[in-house]
Amino acid sequence: MGRSLRILEVSSFMPPHPGGLELVVANLVEGLRERDHDVRWIASATPLAPGVDGPLIRVRAFTRLEDWFSVPLPFWGPSALKQLLAQIRWADVVHVHDCLYPGSAAAVAIARSARTPVLMTQHIAQVPYHNRIKDTLQEVAYNTTGRAVVEAVDKVVTYSPHVQDYFRKLGISKNLELIPLGFDERFAAPTAEDRVQWRKKYGIAQDAQVVVFAARLVAKKGVAEVAEVQRVLGQQGVTLLVAGDGPERNKLDGLLHVRHLPQVPYAEMHAIYGLSDALLLPSRGEGLPLTVQEGMLTGLPVVVSTDPSYLANLKNTPGASLCGDTEGLINATRAYLASPPPRLRIAEWAKNTWGKERFIGGYERAFQQVLERNRVR
């Protein structure tokens, strides 16, 4: 690419806070640092204490909305904004994630004042909460704050065509460039020996048929639909492996053959996919869940909803079934268990689509375009 850059990543949270956005940024930070860029990352401290840990800057924030309403919307106070200002002054380019977070809006405003170029990644479109108040507030937010933030940055990228479509319909003048996500080599088709070892480690019978549901247990992930599927498949001896936790955990109570792992380290998730036979994720309002991409990189067939993200990214792809109702979810999952598709074929397709080199290289080019555009002005 050329010279090393000072890059500031700005997001709502960072690991160990759970969430796909956090993992996307973590993968990006790691990849950029491997290419000798000087990268710092500032985000809300929750669940850890505020402080600085090498390139990671965790700031104090008000996060009770997540506890009260399952809305992960942190608000940064004066001390956090002071730290943000110092980091923006240090950076060659600022990279913010999603337009509705207060930290993102603050970073864009400060960067504009400091004349520091800004790239934004928009991970999702509007999330359907099926709650009139939440849905209305979100729509208003996208049409006001969201629109203002997007129009103020130098360049916007995303990794899902349906996000492009949503912002086009909002009347946003900027074109959102597509940069597919990328993952490390851990996510690959498992060997027979791997599956034996991993099933033994997690206490799963070697001859069990295993469906994995890896997600935060919140409404938008489709916990209720997963429970309905398992009410049927559990009667047939199918094991549901649940990797994740959250407020809707009780919806899985009383189901047959459920193994719940509330906390699985991200470094072990490839083993969870590798020991499983199918992945079930009937979620709504997604960008494109990392779970789906990681699972398919291991060759795991996936059963998902007809959410716009899945329609845009997975329609007519090997090893993916898009289902509009619970009966469809049951039938598609049962079909994959009865006649497993070749894992190597799915894994090869996924690797060609979500390679890490393409991911990091795409962002390096985007940063360079933003810097060149500002030099011309």
- Run of helices and strands: EHEEEEHEHEHEHEHEHEHEEHEHEHEHHH
Apparent shape = globular
Helix content: 40-55%
Total of domains: 2
- From the alpha carbons, calculate the radius of gyration and give it in angstroms: 21 Å
Assign the CATH topology of the largest domain.
Answer: Rossmann fold
| E-strand count | 16
How large is the share of residues in beta strands?
15-25%
Q: Which spans of ≥5 residues are poorly predicted at pLDDT below 50?
A: none
CATH homologous superfamily (4th level) name of the largest domain: Glycogen Phosphorylase B
Name of the CATH architecture of the largest domain: 3-Layer(aba) Sandwich
Largest sheet: 8 strands, mixed
Order of adjacent strands in the largest pleated sheet: 3-4-2-1-7-8-9-10
CATH class membership of the largest domain: Alpha Beta
Label this structure with key terms.
2 domains, 17% strand, eight-stranded mixed beta sheet, alpha/beta, 377 residues, Rossmann fold, 14 helices
Please explain how this structure is put together.
The chain has 377 residues and is an alpha/beta fold. It has 2 domains: 6-182 and 355-376, Rossmann fold (3-Layer(aba) Sandwich); 192-353, Rossmann fold (3-Layer(aba) Sandwich). The chain is built from 14 helices and 16 strands. The strands form 3 sheets. The chain has an 8-stranded mixed sheet with strand order 3-4-2-1-7-8-9-10, with helices on both faces. A 6-stranded parallel sheet has the order 13-12-11-14-15-16, sandwiched between helices. Strands 5-6 form a two-stranded antiparallel sheet. Helix 6 (161-169) links the parallel strand 9 (155-158) and strand 10 (176-178). The longest helix is centred in the middle third of the chain and has 21 residues, at 132-152.
